[in-house]
Write a structure and sequence with these properties.
By secondary structure, the protein is α+β, with helices and mostly antiparallel strands. It has helices at about 45-70, 105-120, 120-130, and strands spanning about 15, 20-25, 30-35, 75-85, 90-100, 130-140. The protein is globular.
């Protein structure tokens, strides 16, 4: 860790109990996750949390850039898909689709996407580690962003 004022540090604590009862503690939130040896179908596992981090970064930046770029939107939804390969087990690539409900013209809808690609903390971090690509699909106001 560094004390450089230009550097922001993030601290997350995670814990597990024998049998796989696991949780992530971050700020005032607790996120339960599947810590069992086998993939479960109730709680998210580590790969799901990685996808969640990328999706949270993308959506946070939609909100951030809506103010910076004076970009009007009603809602946004992102779906992240991670492809796992073995051996060794690894996330080989991640793809996402960002849907923005907005009356902005299509070229303006692309503006937040370009900024997410250039300035998103998770997109930049993951792209350097592995291929991370995405698409954006505009949707008119009043539409479901799913």
């Amino acid at each position: 860790m560094t004390d450089d004022p230009k550097t922001k540090n993030y601290t997350v604590r995670s814990e597990i109990r024998c049998g796989g009862d696991a949780r992530v503690l971050s700020l005032t939130s607790t996120i339960a996750f599947d810590g069992t040896a086998q993939a479960g179908d109730v709680l998210p596992g580590p790969a799901d949390l990685l996808c969640a981090a990328l999706s949270a970064c993308i959506l946070r930046n939609v909100e951030r850039f809506s103010h910076v770029l004076r970009f009007a939107y009603e809602a946004a939804t992102v779906t992240v898909i991670a492809e796992r390969e073995e051996p060794p087990p690894q996330i080989a690539r991640m793809r996402y689709e960002l849907v923005i409900v907005s009356d902005e013209p299509d070229p303006r809808v692309e503006l937040p996407h370009r900024n997410i690609q250039e300035h998103g903390t998770m997109t930049n971090t993951l792209r350097m580690a592995r291929e991370v690509r995405g698409t954006i699909r505009p949707a008119p106001k009043g539409a479901n962003a799913s």
